[in-house]
Amino acid sequence: MSQAWWKKAVFYQIYPKSFNDTNNDGIGDLNGIREKLPYLKELGIDALWISPVYLSPQVDNGYDIADYRQIDPMFGTNQEMYDLIEEAHEQEIKIVMDFVANHTSDECLWFKESRKSKDNFFSDFYIWEDAKADGSAPNNWGSSFGGSAWSWDDSRQQYYLHYYAKEQPDLNWENPMVREYIYDMMRFWKSKGVDGWRMDVVTSISKDLAFPDNPRAFTTENQQNGPRMHEFIHEMNQEVLKPFEMMSVGESPAAKSSDAHLLVDPKREELDMIFTFEHMHVDRKKGDVNGRWALKKMDLPQLKSILASWQIELRDKGWNALYFENHDRARVISRWGNDQKFRYQTATAFATVLHGLQGTPFVFQGEEIGMTNPKFELEEYEDIELRGNYQFYVEQQKTMNKEVFLAAVHKISRDNARTPMQWDASENAGFSQADPWFKLNPNYPEINVENDRKSEQSVFKYYQALIELRHNEAILTEGSFELLYPEDEALFIYKRQYAGKTWYVVANFSETKQEIPSEVNGLTGKIMIKNNLQRAELSNSLAPYEAFIIEV
Ligand code: GLC
Ligand code: CA
Q1: Cβ of 108: how many Cβ atoms within 10 Å?
Q2: Which one of 75, 149, 190, 522 is CB 3.0 to 4.6 Å from 53, fit for a cystine?
Q3: Which ligand is nearest to the Cα of residue 201, counting in written order?
Q4: Which NCBIfam families does the annotation name (predicted)?
Q5: What is the Cα–Cα distance from 166 to 148, expressed in whole angstroms?
Q6: Is the CB of 201 under 6 A from ligand 1?
Q7: Comma-separated ranges of CATH 2.60.40.1180 domains in the chain
Q8: What's the pLDDT tens digit per position in 46-64?
Q9: pLDDT digits (tens, 9 = 90+) for 237-268
Q10: What's the fold here for domain 480-551?
Q11: 270 assigned to active site
Q12: What's the rounded Cα separation, in Å, for the pair 363 and 11?
């Protein structure tokens, strides 16, 4: 069998609201994506993952879907979506949509019917439970957006479960009708030409129906890897993914390198790839009462060891999805690098170590020009997660004060990645003629696509070159992997080997010069890519955030 197309592909994620606005209402749209296809083609990417564009009240920016078969008028029409798919295909760009099937919007017809009574067709489409004798919620499960995961419904006189906002009720996958409705929706989009799916929190779809309390109230440990998860995913594979040859990448917050193969081993026929969260937690104080807002300094040896263990564990047992950024993550150069003095170097250093690995790289819009986190005031943010968590940790639980919370927001909040795309230095960054739905990063007159592409130090050109390497060099997709100097606090160095070739991927993740360690010192060969124009061969020392790949 020929190799799966997505193994040599580089993906680009679009967050449509913030990408490109063509009808000047301040909100990015489908025609805005179409207009930028030539730009994306120049970058060299092979496929787009488009965050949700379906009909939605936008409580969670589209991750609350009211109708899976309808494009939200805010983004355009169904016909415009079909045209986008067709035009992308003409340019040999595949389209992957976002599958949000752990929950719907409370404005979805299914939920509106379900809440009416206990005995209509949709009654069991969601997870309904009676109150405890004292009227309280069935258990102490928490919502990811703060507070309880249960909300009381007056009309039905029961609680319903929602792992996210109360406007995002969780679907009941135990009900075969729910699964059939979902599979049918997937076939519908297949018939329109969609090539695959990014699957939103797909590892949450099965719930422990005994509803046991969590060890700590309002935490979310219960949310992942429920008892029938593999069974449901396998069924979806058999019903849709396999027969219709649709590619899949599942969001899998709890997967570890040791058990990831259970989801992605081709023999098991579940998913093609998963997005792990493990490597993104290397700046988190584990087990802290303030959850993901409790930060510490990024631990480079830990980052290396996690990435390395995924490389090794999934070798011949699955395929990695590689990323540092997406719409739920901060800009990596602001979070773990230096986005001021060494912005170009940090951006390209992170890109080098990620794109040098085995797997399929995902680039998030703006990452390819080194966009940075904004530092807004608390009131200027939009994200429901941020607001809900502020209420919970600062106002209710009082385990953080506002300043500490805001400092964490500046580092890791999801809104960091959601400011409008910076195309040029004109008003509103060329994103829109109108005031955008969310504030622009004030640095857009300096950091934007147009400036970057003109610059000698162009992040865009560096990504272009990396993507070209991936397309041309089998060693990147096929080669073995070996991590060198795992304990080193500043250097990230690894070796790839394939068919008689040896490559070293080398990066300095510190702001000071570093000596090149003995094993790689003095090697000569061909530099495949570098972010320091002076670099000729492997010798001497590495400049701050210097990175390169050398074939020896
Ligand atoms: C996923 C999405 C995130 C969303 C959540 C609920 O984590 O990536 O943006 O808020 O699921 O759908
Ligand atoms: Ca618009």
Answers
A1: 25
A2: 75
A3: 1
A4: PRK10933.1 (NF008183)
A5: 9
A6: yes
A7: 480-551
A8: 999 999 999 999 999 999 9
A9: 999 999 999 999 999 999 999 999 999 999 99
A10: Immunoglobulin-like (2.60.40)
A11: no
A12: 6
| pTM exceeds 0.85 | yes
Helix (H) or strand (E) holding 40: helix 37-43
Q: Is the dihedral of CA 446, 450, 456, 461 positive or negative?
A: positive
The rounded distance, in Å, linking the Cα atoms of 481 and 361 is 16
DSSP 389-414: HIIIIIIIS-SS-HHHHHHHHHHH-G
Alpha-carbon gap, residue 349 to 491, rounded angstroms: 11
Ligand 1 atom at shortest distance from the alpha carbon of 102:
12
Ligand 1 in contact with 164 (CB < 6 A)?
yes
Over the stretch 318-377, which tens digit does the pLDDT of each residue have? 999 999 999 999 999 999 999 999 999 999 999 999 999 999 999 999 999 999 999 999
Confidence of residue 539 (pLDDT cuts 50, 70, 90): low
Given a cut of 90, whether residue 3 has pLDDT beyond it is: no
**184 φ, ψ to 5°?**
-65, -40
CATH architecture of 109-161: Alpha-Beta Complex (3.90)
User: How far does residue 325's CA lie from ligand 2's centre (Å)?
Assistant: 24
Q: Which ligand is nearest to the CA of 74?
A: 2
The verdict on the CB of residue 60 being under 6 Å from ligand 1 is: yes
Give me the catalytic one of 46, 153, 251, 385: 251
Task: Work out whether strand 273-276 and strand 547-551 pair parallel, antiparallel, or are unpaired.
Answer: unpaired
Cα separation, 534 vs 65, in Å, equals: 51
Residue type at 461? K
DSSP 8-state code for residue 237: I
Q: How far is CA 300 from the centre of its chain?
A: 21
Q: What is the reported pLDDT for 534?
A: 73
**What is the residue-averaged pLDDT of the chain?**
96
Q: How far apart are CA 175 and CA 152, in angstroms?
A: 21
As a whole number of Å, the CA-based R_g of the chain is 23
- Counted residue by residue, the chain has a size of 552
Q: Tell whether the model's pLDDT for residue 21 goes beyond 70.
A: yes
Mean of pLDDT values over 431-441: 98
SS (H, E, C) 303-329: HHHHHHHHHHHCCCCCCCEECCCCCCC
